[in-house]
């Protein structure tokens, strides 16, 4: 499970967040988006070496966050269950390979002549070997 997916499940949890500039933010999470931008309510903001400031709402840009300090009472086992559906890899389409040959050996340059070639065909999407030997001969 990706970290941001875990953080997106922390709605209504009270956490402390340390920012990269040393600021400590303590508040209740109202939402976390895919960029790890975090939205909080009932916030206490403590700048490094300054007096704490109380705020009703605060949004923090995700790339400014150093780390989250989670409450001890948080049940991590239930939150870490990956409930997102898995996406199956698409099967390669033969038409893509034919278009590749047309680009490599255009008929206006070679006429009907295509040199004899042997190579391995590897799927671009999955990186798996599709055909161990593919030969194109003169037509």
Automatic annotation (TrEMBL):
GO terms for molecular function: RNA binding. InterPro entries: LSm4/Sm_D1/D3, LSM_dom_sf, Sm, Sm_D1, Sm_dom_euk/arc. Keywords: mRNA processing, mRNA splicing, Nucleus, Repeat, Ribonucleoprotein. GO terms for biological process: regulatory ncRNA-mediated post-transcriptional gene silencing; spliceosomal snRNP assembly. Pfam families: LSM. Gene3D superfamilies: 2.30.30.100. One of its GO terms (cellular component) is nuclear speck. Transmembrane segments: none annotated. Residues 2-74 form the Sm domain. Its main location: nucleus. It is found in: Nucleus. Belongs to the snRNP core protein family. Involved in splicing regulation. Facilitates post-transcriptional gene silencing (PTGS) by limiting the degradation of transgene aberrant RNAs by the RNA quality control (RQC) machinery, thus favoring their entry into cytoplasmic siRNA bodies where they can trigger PTGS. Does not participate in the production of small RNAs. This is Small nuclear ribonucleoprotein Sm D1. The lineage of its organism: Eukaryota, Viridiplantae, Streptophyta, Embryophyta, Bryophyta.
């Amino acid at each position: 499970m990706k970290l941001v997916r875990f953080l997106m499940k922390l709605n209504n949890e009270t956490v402390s967040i340390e920012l990269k500039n040393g600021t400590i933010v303590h508040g209740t999470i109202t939402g976390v988006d895919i960029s790890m931008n975090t939205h909080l309510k009932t916030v206490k903001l403590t700048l490094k070496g300054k007096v704490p400031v109380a705020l009703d709402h605060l949004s923090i840009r995700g790339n400014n966050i150093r780390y989250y300090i989670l409450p001890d009472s948080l049940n991590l086992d239930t939150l870490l269950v990956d409930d997102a559906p898995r996406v199956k890899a698409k099967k390669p389409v033969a038409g893509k390979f034919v278009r590749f040959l047309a680009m490599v050996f255009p008929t206006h340059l070679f006429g009907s002549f295509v040199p004899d070639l042997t190579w391995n065909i590897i799927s671009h999407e999955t990186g798996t070997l599709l055909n161990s030997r593919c030969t194109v001969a003169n037509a």
